[in-house]
Design goal:
single chain; about 525 residues; alpha+beta; Immunoglobulin-like; Purple Acid Phosphatase, chain A, domain 2; 14-stranded mixed sheet; six-stranded mixed sheet; about 30% strand
């Protein structure tokens, strides 16, 4: 018989074992947990026209290796309402929180109406979670005139406060695309320093050493998810999430650990990291981690307005050429056999683009596509980021050839810890423009930053397809209509102190049918 503790059985068992059986039911419910069990908040994800995933994790004691939970299965009630006061319940049920998954809960809610907001929460006895909000998508093909959504990621806990997330929540997006680096795998750095090598203000420290085991990764997610600004952003909208590298290890690809570990050993670490990622993200069962990794690439249609393609640029990629890092171009950059997406995912994206299901095609992914020449001095040869599409000429040219003639492709990217905006041109940036790319800055990674990083003017001069860059922390806010795509670079002046205000550093517009940027 499975070891499942329903609320009634768990409460009754605790009461019988402690002399509480005759106590009022409200007292028994309060005694279920020694502390509040929903301390990590709630989240919704992968919205569709008829529903979305809702998530929570029972964790009354974040300092305990098991979150303060018994090694038993626990029932959790959930409910979805059509009003913010949660008076009109339109869907409800009971989910199972399992110790094998750190007592996380993933409920795939279905049967809802398209293109409208819903509110949700979880209960156990008298314990109640915070309330979250999620919008269902419009039905595929439905006429849609506008969409607002946010793009965010790269949230190194040690580098700064998550103030930008509080502002993102207040901007009321229909959904959020999180491009990755939700956690960072490194040990604590009590003496932080910036890209210039100079010390910068200490903000807060990671708990624990470098992450390797499942317990290590779980502990890091627990620490990150206690942040109230991050919880506010999750509660404000459903998220489409994709991991990048730091959810496992810096610059990993396929089963290649850039630290040089044997592949069979790194496979164990990757499996632990994927499990912890699933446990803490609002993902559908289709993304459940297995022996071959996770199903990360997927698609969503926002009526007839936007066709969203979420890519995976890690699991199928060839090893970085030129020994990785920011390096002078070597012969490996032009390797015709190199892969970024892999053959299967490339074919999947090609089929999607051929269907022409939306007015706009949004390519939501992790690493910069523009082949940016990173030289800032008098170096004789071009320098590129070998962990970006810029190090993979053949796959990048294949990708851009698929965009040619569509005149409606917007690529959304992260990873760089700066805002970049530019045109995607064939022939290594020297040919025709076939799409545009917006690179969102980080939430906190990189520290306070500046309006512009040193030597920005030299970078722009060497890359005529690059039209804008900025070095403050924040996120992108995208407003889309049939005629225009507008991206606002929302930034905060500092992350080393709490409560920074938000402003718009630039507003960049694309007209439908014209892969060019207009900057205000």
């Amino acid at each position: 018989m499975p070891n499942i503790l329903s609320r009634r059985a768990l409460l009754g068992g605790l009461a019988a074992g402690s002399g509480w059986l005759a106590a009022p039911s409200i007292l028994r419910a309060q005694q279920l947990f020694a502390a509040y069990p929903f301390r990590l908040g709630v989240a919704a994800g992968d919205p569709a026209a008829d529903g979305f995933v809702i998530w929570t994790r029972l964790c009354p004691d974040p300092q305990d290796s098991h979150g303060g939970m018994p090694m038993a299965v626990v029932d959790v009630d959930w409910e979805v309402a059509s009003d913010i006061a949660m008076k009109t319940i339109v869907a409800k049920g009971t989910a199972t929180a399992r110790p094998e998954l750190a007592h996380s809960v993933h409920v795939e809610v279905a049967g809802l109406q398209p293109a409208r907001p819903y509110w949700y929460r979880f209960r156990i006895g008298r314990e109640r979670s915070m309330r979250g909000k999620a919008m269902t998508l419009p039905a595929a093909g439905a006429s849609v005139d506008q969409l607002r959504f946010a793009v965010a990621g790269c949230q190194n806990f040690e580098d700064g406060w998550y103030t930008a997330y509080r502002h993102l929540a207040n901007d009321d997006p229909a959904f959020v695309f999180h491009y990755g680096d939700y956690i960072y795998e490194g040990r604590s750095s009590p003496v932080p320093f910036g890209y210039d090598g100079l010390p910068r203000p200490f903000v807060r420290a990671h708990e624990g050493q470098m992450l390797y085991s499942l317990d290590d990764y779980r502990r890091r997610y627990t620490q990150i998810k206690l942040d109230p600004d991050l919880q506010a952003a999750h509660a404000a909208a459903a998220w489409f999430v994709t991991p990048d590298d730091h959810e496992i290890e810096n610059n990993w690809v396929t089963l290649i650990d850039q630290g040089g570990d044997p592949q069979e050993i790194f496979a164990l670490r990757r499996a632990a990291a994927f499990q912890a990622y699933y446990e803490h993200m609002p993902l559908r069962k289709s993304s459940f981690p297995g022996a071959n990794g996770m199903q990360i690439y997927r698609r969503a249609l926002y009526g007839n307005l936007v066709d969203l393609h979420f890519l995976d640029t890690r699991q199928f990629r060839s090893d970085q050429p030129c020994d990785d890092g920011f390096k002078t171009i070597c012969p490996g950059v032009s390797d015709p056999k190199a892969q970024v997406l892999g053959e299967v995912q490339e074919a999947w994206l090609d089929r999607n683009l051929r269907q022409k299901a939306g007015r706009w095609n949004a390519i939501a992914q992790q690493i910069m596509v523009m082949p940016l020449d990173r030289r800032t001095g008098d170096e004789p040869d071009a320098i590129r980021n070998m962990d970006s599409w810029g190090a993979y000429d053949a796959p990048r040219e294949r990708l851009l050839s698929r965009f040619k003639g569509l005149n409606n492709v917007v690529v959304l990217t992260g990873d760089e810890h700066q805002n970049f905006a530019g045109e995607l041109r064939q022939k290594q940036g020297a040919g025709d423009a076939v799409a545009v790319e917006f690179v969102s800055t980080s939430i906190s990674s990189g520290g306070d930053g500046a309006d512009k990083r040193e030597n920005t003017d030299r970078i722009i001069a060497r890359n005529p397809f690059l039209k804008y860059t900025g070095d403050r922390r924040g996120y992108l806010l995208c407003d889309v209509s049939p005629a225009t795509w507008q991206s606002q670079c929302r930034v905060v002046p500092m992350v080393s102190e709490k409560g920074a205000p938000v402003s718009t550093a630039a507003t960049i517009t694309v007209e439908h049918g014209k892969p060019a940027l207009n900057i205000a």
